[in-house]
Every structure is written in C-alpha cells, then in structure tokens.
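Homework help thread (please don't just give me the answer)

Our assignment gives two proteins as sequence + structure token strings and asks us to describe the second one. The first is just a warm-up. Here they are:
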Amino acid sequence: MGTEFGILGPIEVRAAGAVRPIRPGKQRVLLAALLLSANQAVSVDEIAEIFWGLAPPPSARVTIQNYVMRLRQALADTGSSRISTQSRGYQMRVAAGELDVTRFEALLGSARAAVRDSSWGTAAARASAALSLWRGEPLADVDSEALAARDGPRLAELRLQALEIRIDADLHLGRHAEVIVELQRLIRDHPLRERFHGLLMLTLHRDGRQGEALAAYQHVRRLLVDELGTEPGAGLREVHQQVLTVAPALTSRPAPELPQANASNGHQETATKPLRPQRRMIRVVPRQLPAPVRHFVGRLDEQSALDALLDSVSASPGPVLAAITGTAGIGKSALALQWAHRAAQRFPDGQLYVNLRGYDPVGPPLEPLATGIYRCGGRASKFS
C-alpha cells in the first residue's frame, strides 16, 4: 500500500496501511500548511504568519527550520524527499492520488461533467465517492486560526456543492423518499442556502406531497425576508410557480434550474430564465465584489477591529466610514476585500465596488472629487 495524506477531518498520514503519528502543535500546523499548497512553494514569511500572526519572534526562521527537520523525520518512511527546500521556503511533494483533497476535487469535477451530460447515475456515484472521503471537519485537530479562516470556508463550500449534486442526481433517478429527511437536516444546518430549499420542494412534490412543498416555499420566503430583507431568488420562485400549477416540467427530466452557490463568496446566484410577469417589482441586489485574494493570511486583529466597528453601527446616528491606511503595497486593498467578503451577509442590500485605479497600468487614478456611474440590474446610479 502507498502513502495517503488526509485533511478532510483530523489530519492523517498513512504509510503501508499504518497511521504515522504527527505531533500536535506547530508540527501539525506546518504539515497542514504544506499539504494545502501541495507541490507549491510556501514561503518562510507565510509559515511565520500562520504560526504567530503579525508578531513572529526574532528566532522565527530558525524555529521553522527546526519544525521542518522534525517533520521530515516523521515522514521519513513515506517516500524520499517529501519536503524540499526552495529559494524562499519549502515545498511538500505529493503524488497523484495521495491527498484526499485533490481526490475529492477530481471526483467533484467528474460529477459536474456528468451533470452536464445528464448522466445522473454517474453523477450520483462520483459525488457519493467524493463525499465518502470526508472524515469530519477539515483541519479539525490543527490549531491554526489562519488556516481555518483561509481554507475552511472553501472546503466546506465544496462539500455542500457535492451534496447538492448528489441529491439532485438522486432526485432525477427517482429516489425521492430517500432524500427528504437528509434535505430537512441540511436545511436546519444551512437555513439560508436556497438550493437545498428548492431541492426539498421538488422532492416533496415528486413524492406526491404538493401541500408540503408549497408550505416549504412559504417557510423559506419568510426566513429570507426576516433575516436578509430579500425575496427568494428567481430559481426558487420558478420552482414554486411550477409546484403551484403542477407544471409538467416537474414530472419530466431534467429538473428546473436552481440557484448555484458561488464558491468565492457563498452568495446564491440566481437563474436567468425569464419568469412570467409579476405584479410586484423584483428588487435587484448588487453583488459587485471581486474575488478575494486566494492565499490571504493574517490581519486577524485588523479584521476584528472592522467587525467591532460594524457592531457599533446600530448605536450610530448615521453612516459609519472605515478607512484602512498604510504605505503602498502592504495589502490594504486585499484586507478590505477579504473583510468585505467575510461580512457580506451583514449587508443584505448588496455590496458596491469602485476601482480607484491606484496602480492601474491603463488609466490614471481617480481624482478625490471624481463622479461616475455604476450599473446594477440594468439601472444606472451615480457615485461621488
């Protein structure tokens, strides 16, 4: 048997069928950091920030070297030269199929391809195989807030997407009764995820429980209005309309398009298929944030300060403005964008983004008194 590395649960190393112990603390954090960037160099500065945040000790480089040496010893029988020294840091060599995260992502990609081909049996099998790799919470025994904040949400989102694909495929295969209880549990755990609600409505309807399907829609609608101040997305409204009118589309395949989750920020994208005219106006919520920095670490104190400022807004008589200052190139924009994604759900009216072009190679920076136009849902508004 070969070597296997596990991150999707407590961190685990297996060689020749036996578990190799990795000491808790910094050694386990180091292994997790290297595995999460497998076959890529991780700089000493990044490791130091993962270990100690923004206040590494003067002996940080030497201490990291010692942890690398001990980790190499712990992995000595898993293959030669697992950890190589690079010009600025270290790289963990992992062969194809050895790391559970890469196997999971490959199976998830295969399941998505099967959905596009309407190969529902294959989609269900591949998604199930991907989910079987999960042994618990990712990095469950790795004591690192930085890694948990950086990689935990992304991995959790991928797992939810795999669940959605598997349940959708099961629904196409006629396994209605088997997934109802599972969907109800997932909705309790993720009450604002519209796709789970839509799948439950479809499942109840195809199981001959139209009244419960309509009640499920009213439940999620009240929840979204109370919690976020928004109506359900277009895909969920379409499923409701089809259940209400017992549309033939619900008894044929494929199932109606449902909102997909965006892995970068967790926002529910909505289907673009035109709906029949409605009497009330549908509010368009702007979601203009660019994707966050992929390997953002640290700045936990600054993010906590922004959280505290936001918490104080309710006591403020008017708008609150936060300014992030510092010298050029230290990551002000990256911090602002990272926090904006982190706090996006607390801004149900949407998020706007204006590029001030501070370092734009094409155009000059915007002047302080500049005005412009942003667009959302076909409507234009002025900013200054």
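The one we have to describe:
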Amino acid sequence: MDDRKAKIPLESLPQLYRDAVIITRQLNIKYLWIDSLCIIQDSNDDWSKESASMGEVYRFAFLTISALDSQDCHQGILIQRAPSDTQPMKEDGTFIPLNTLQRRRQDVIMKSALCQRAWVLQERLLSPRILYYSAAEMLWECLSCTARESSTSVAPFQPTSYEYQSNQCRTMKTQLILPLDENPSYPISPPSDWYLIVTEYTLCCLTKASDKLPALSGLASIFKRNTSYKYLAGLWEEDFAGGLLWFAPIGQGQRNEERSIQPYRGPSWSWVSSDLRIQYKTFPFQKDTYAAADIKLFSSSIEYVGQNPMGEIASARITVQAYFQKLVYEIQLGTRRCFVYNDEGKRCGSGIFDFKDGEPRARKECGGLWVMQRRMWGLEYFDQDYPLPPTYLLYFLIVERVSDAVVENCWRRIGLGWAIPQEMGFGTQQLDIVLA
C-alpha cells in the first residue's frame, strides 16, 4: 500500500492498464480509475464501501474506456491491425462499400467478451461517454450520438418510445445519468426500467455468486435516487407485487437448471436466488387492473454482510398478507413446467418452476400465494391448452413450507403459477405469511 502511494511504475502494470494510461495521457485527462488498483484488494471493508458508490464513479466519469475483446488485463487494446488490401466486388463490376460489410454496431458490443460480464452492465448504462476498443475498430457512444471507425456517418440519438423488450432504450439510460430536477413530482424511472435492467443483467456471467447484488448496486442506487423507492434484495417495496412476477424462461442452453447448491445469495422470493436468465410478466394497462387480490407487504427484515445497503445479503425474510390456498403440483418430465391442481383434484392452472425438480410426474403438496389478478388483452395468454383468453388471469407464487424455520408459517418460493381465478376452487383465505 505504501509503495503504491509513493509511485506505480508503468512497467509494473499489465498491458491493458498501460494502454489505458497512454490513452488517458493523450487525452490530457489527469485521473484514471481502474477498479483493481483503486479498491484495496482482499479488504472486505474497502470493497463494501467502494462497491456502494460505483454508480457515481461511472456516472460522473469524463470518459469510460471499454476494452471489448480483451480476455484479461494482459491483453492490450493499442494493437497493430492489418489493413484490408482488397475490396469485394459485385457481379456488375462495382465495388461494395466497406462500411456495408461491417457487423452491426450492437453485435460488436453486446457479443463481445467484455459484455458477457455482469459487472460491466452498470458501467455501460451509467457512463455518459464510452470509447469502445474492439479487435477491428473503435466505436463511440455518448448521450448525443454514436459513431464508429468503419463508417463516416454519425448517428444522433433520437427520442424513442418506451419498449419493454428493447434493452437499449435511450430514455432509460438518459434518465439514469442526467441530474434530477430540484423537486421531481413523480418517479423518474418507471418500474419497467428496472425489469429491463434485471433481464439484461441475468444474461451475463459472474465469477463469484456472492457478487450477485454488489455488481448491480451502482444501478440500484441511481434507480433509488430517481424513485425514492425502498430496496428489498433486488426488488422495490413500492412495486413489490410486480417485482414478484419474475420467472426463468424454459430452455436456457448450458445453464444449470437444478436447484442451486451455491452459497446463499438472497431470499427465494427474489430473482437474486436464481442462476438462470430472468424475465417478467408486465401489465401496461394499469387502469383496468383488479387490485383486490394483490399481495400486501407488512414488514421486511434484511441483514447485510457489509456496509453496502444494496450489496451482499446474509439473510432476508418478509411478512406479507395474501390469499393463500393449498394446492398440488406435478412437474412435466424433462422440463420445469408444471400443472397445478386445486383441493378437489381438478387441474386449475400451470406454472414454471424456478429450478428442475428431482421427481417429475410425482404430485406434491404446495401452497399458492396470490400475487395479483390482471386483465388479459388481445391474444396474450399463458397456456396453449386454452384456446381463448379469459377476462382475468391470476398470478400466484408456488411455495413450499420451510420445515426448519425459526418463525411460524414460513414458506419459500419454488415457482410462478397462473390460473383463471374461477377455476382455483374453494378454501382460499387471506393469511399473514412469512417468506424466506
């Protein structure tokens, strides 16, 4: 530590860091932030403190240098590139402009080695200016425009309508970066922005499972600034019911879909507990909702490992009031899909488990914790077995009892279910439930 405070010889740094120093000096910028140099390594206290403010580090940076194709810190970005000595020709004898052969800008960035890392998402979304170095070219991005070395055009950012499926929504990034008005009268970032962030975040990979929340804490802190919401282990108290409607889509390729045996990362009701890619059920037409069945949050108890109130969690549980029903589920063979039966033995709905069950086709008792009812629109529906959509659809958590819990009536989430409310049957009552 004392040696580094005195001086850091350039030749002592790996190649990528040396290149970053050269670029910074060429731009006449005085300061350079590199996480592994600026955060004391193997110090849990310093790590906890600095990870809590990473959002501000990138949001207030003059420029972020992004090494897209460097596999590690020993692979530099100031490299010799072979010039193209041929230009393809069309059948009519005219040449194909080189910029029409380039890969889509979005593909160059999103399919790079760097953007597969979960830690990079908040760097990309919170940096006002980014200079990307790929193996073939440089690319530029700021809040005004994008540009690239292989093209002579500069693309200005145009206002775009909000679209849940677009993880590059310009409005979302702008709202995260720009300062707030002095007295904002409404949340600047809608809950659906958070769904976008989580959906993209869970596409990425983490080396340490315990970093699941710390690697997102910068974005979480800015989102809290924009909304004044209370953070609950990856969810928000003011959007609690909507935040529970996450699920892991079927068919995740190489990802392990078995129940996780990794160290504790978070409670079962939060997407943080899953290693799979996550999506959400969203409902844009709030005026037509039926809120009588919505789950209500009574209290929460969250214990953190360090000083970061949006970082690693040691334990968490919540107490909710919701309609509860005894059910039976049956996992379909070779998948995480399940059928749900009411207390009369009649199939009343379907669901997706958060992990693969070890005993498919075996019927097991479970609980159904009602989350919300929402009107279906158009052809949107949940199950191919039903040819026409109903007026309303009920979403509920599939839960199992925690046998060794220190509190009474404690349950854990194991999946998300849906059903036509009229088919759920009788025996439903509103109870106070503890979720761990």
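TA reply:
I won't write it for you, but here's a hint about the kind of observation we're looking for: Residues 285-290, 378-382 have pLDDT under 50 and may be disordered.
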